[in-house]
Write a structure and sequence with these properties.
The chain has about 200 residues and is α/β, with parallel strands linked by helices. About 35% of the residues lie in helices and about 20% in strands. The chain has helices at about 15-30, 70-80, 85, 105-115, 125-135, 160-170; strands at about 10, 40-45, 60, 95-100, 120-125, 145-150, 155, 175-180, 185-190, 190-195. Bound molecules: flavin-adenine dinucleotide.
């Protein structure tokens, strides 16, 4: 695939963010009837999914402490579930298993999840947590006083998921070029020129 001499949107880096951005951008342009052959181009200096994405644990969850993340992550988890096959997503759920130290924070996360209708269960108290966790045959940990169980979360293999995002971006009309590195960006008179 050849490098176009110009394009409307250039995304530098074919990690999960670059590819997802390319996919969503193409869908948006297409819905407005504005998508052209070289509208969205992604350049990746090695291969897609070779950066941080290649070493991520692959967990897709919604229990970050920042309240502002709650709706955003709920939206992201929906994207994973709606495209589970191509992204190789496994919606097995996610359990945040806490000692007393994290109880208050996770109770707050749970109440925010309820507020937005994110499907989860919060178990409190050592005895109830032990009972809940004993559904797993090997469970032995002590000192657990709360469990936040998210039902629609899960995990995806990092490289497999990234290749899935590549497929979705290409199918939506993005051009993805591997082995192309940006070395400088020169701007003059309001237009950008990329040095490769
Ligand atoms: C150990 C670890 C575990 C993690 N676990 C999780 C997890 O369980 N769940 C979760 O949601 N997040 C997790 N994360 C965070 C997650 O991995 C990152 O947020 C995500 O992968 C970042 O994606 P990215 O596309 O922004 O960056 P990257 O995946 O790093 O992609 C950037 C790409 O840009 C390319 N590039 C760089 N410079 C240039 C250039 N000049 N020209 C062309 N290409 C260039 C690189 O080669 C790379 O492929 C984890 C991170 C780490 C390190």
């Amino acid at each position: 695939m050849s490098l176009p001499s110009k394009c409307e949107y250039l995304i530098i880096g074919g990690g999960i963010h670059g590819l997802s951005t390319a996919w969503h951008l193409c869908k948006k342009l297409s819905s407005k009837g504005q998508l052209k052959e070289d509208s969205v181009v992604v350049i990746e200096k090695t291969q897609v999914g070779e950066g941080a994405t290649s070493v991520a644990c692959g967990i897709v969850r919604n229990n970050y402490y920042q309240p502002a993340m709650r709706r955003l992550m709920a939206h992201s988890v929906d994207v994973w579930n709606s495209n589970a096959e191509v992204l190789q997503f496994r919606p097995v759920g996610y359990m945040q298993i806490n000692s007393q130290l994290m109880h208050e924070g996770m109770a707050e996360v749970y109440s925010q999840q309820k507020e937005i209708g994110y499907d989860s269960t919060f178990i409190e108290g050592a005895a109830d947590c032990d009972k809940y966790m004993k559904d797993l045959p090997d469970w032995q940990a002590q000192g657990i006083t709360s469990v936040l169980h998210e039902k629609n979360s899960g995990y995806g293999p990092n490289r497999g998921a990234n290749l899935g995002f590549k497929k979705l971006a290409e199918a939506a009309g993005a051009k993805i070029l591997e082995g192309v590195q940006a070395t400088n960006l020169v701007t003059a008179n309001g237009s950008g020129r990329l040095v490769l």
